[in-house]
């Protein structure tokens, strides 16, 4: 078998899991329930968020927060302040792809 197979947790509970962490890419899988989110942080690589279920409220740098729905892919540049939350009843599920792998990137700005 040539391909490598990775598993993600199929759940409706809050989950943050690293799926792939190799020399090419870093892929995380996240599930957020209503009124939960990620700590405010700065993107440590070029980030692509693939929303597969629910709605994401995301504030970037000092801009007002925007609402994004399942089926959207967000491209967020390196060194951008991020605040990600689920403010809705439906479970939010998304994948975060970082390329290049953050371990190959320079330090991020302080917030």
Short description:
With 111 residues, the chain is mostly beta strands.
Structure description:
By secondary structure, this protein is mainly beta. The protein has a single domain, classed as Jelly Rolls, CATH 2.60.120. The chain is 0% helix and 49% strand. It has no helices and 10 strands. A 5-stranded antiparallel beta sheet has the order 1-2-10-5-8, with no helix packed on it. Strands 3, 4, 6, 7 and 9 form a 5-stranded antiparallel beta sheet that branches. A hairpin with a 4-residue loop joins strand 1 and strand 2. The radius of gyration is 14 Å and the shape is globular. Keywords: Isomerase. GO terms for molecular function: isomerase activity. This is Mannose-6-phosphate isomerase, cupin superfamily.
Features of this protein?
111 residues; RmlC-like_jellyroll; mainly beta; 49% strand; 10 strands
Net shape: globular
Give start-end ranges of low-pLDDT stretches. none
Count of alpha/pi helices:
0
Query: What proportion strand?
Result: over 45%
As a whole number of angstroms, the C-alpha radius of gyration is: 14 Å
Class in CATH?
Answer: Mainly Beta
CATH superfamily membership, which one? Jelly Rolls
Assign the structural class, choosing from mainly alpha, mainly beta, alpha/beta, alpha+beta, or little secondary structure: mainly beta
Q: Average pLDDT value?
A: 97
Tell me about the largest β-sheet. Answer: 5 strands, antiparallel
